[in-house]
Amino acid sequence: MPVTAARSGRLTDLPVLLVAVVWGSSYLAAKGVTTERTVLAVLVLRFAVALPVLAATGWRRLRALSAVQLRGAGLLGLILAGIFLLETYGVVHTSATNAGLIISLTMVFTPLAESRVRGTRLPGSFFGAAGLSVLGVALLTQGAGFTAPTGGDLLMLGAAVARTVHVLAMSRMESVRGADALSLTTVQLGAAVLVFAALAALPGTGASPWWAAAAFDGGDWLGLVYLSAFCTLFAFFVQMWAVRRTSPSRVSLLLGTEPVWAAAVGIAVGGDRPGVPGLLGAVLVLAGTAWGRTVADRERGAGADGAQDGGKDGAGDGGVVAVGGVPDGTARTP
């Protein structure tokens, strides 16, 4: 019996680990298909492909959302739109390796923000981990020499902050508590696509989705389908499937390997050459975020053991796998 359970656990782990690999590769995929002029067009096309599938899959539950839940999810979608814009413009102007590692700072920013909001104190070891991560990013953005961070690096840093805001909003908003995760994701992505389409329609904001679609070659379409089908749909449904068969903490641990894969894909496939300072920075970022995540999870677990009925600070049913979010509350947009 234990052998069967262990084998079942490994079978569950493999698809989740594959999601982490897919997410890690998404920065290089987005960089390959997007230019500064086509950011908005690519975002519209990417989610125009994924959104109908999500809506059709969860149509009954989507119709069951109350007006209050729809408004709350729509507001979260505006934040989500900001995250996608910062990430996509950022990855155009920096390397895939930098993008994947800098965005992982969300794993440090989120517990810090949660502690301030809740009025709790994190242990000193967490601040040591945070300092290690920040030092790592400082070295990572230097590349082969000591220079100022690029605009893309700063945009990715802004995206990490925006992800943290999204996590806190999703966990604190009463209006989305109890909302079905699939429905919540669908509404948020729908609101984000409306933002992208509205911005794309403005003059001087780049190519229209139709122009970009007509100009795409076969490789561009493969990249777009990869982002839509694998980095969005496959990732979301694997999370939905996995959290019902294993613990959220286990899923979170596996998805937390995403920055490792981002760095590996960027260097091995994308040809990124971060130099000695950059490589040292990458190691420090990975070590700092992993350490910080461990400390934060330990503190969260201790708090949950001491709380009665989970209190009012939990993420609620809607926050379990909302918008491709890591189940422990560390957001990851699909």
Automatic annotation (TrEMBL):
The chain crosses the membrane at residues 12-33, 39-56, 68-86, 92-113, 125-145, 221-243. Pfam families: EamA. It is found in: Cell membrane. Keywords: Cell membrane, Membrane, Transmembrane, Transmembrane helix. It is a multi-pass membrane protein. It comes from the Bacteria. Residues 14-141, 152-290 form the EamA domain. The keyword Transmembrane helix applies. Its main location: membrane. Residues 323-334 have a biased composition (Low complexity). Residues 300-334 are annotated as: Disordered. Belongs to the EamA transporter family. PANTHER family: EAMA DOMAIN-CONTAINING PROTEIN, OS03G0707200 PROTEIN-RELATED. This is DMT family transporter. It comes from Streptomyces cinerochromogenes.
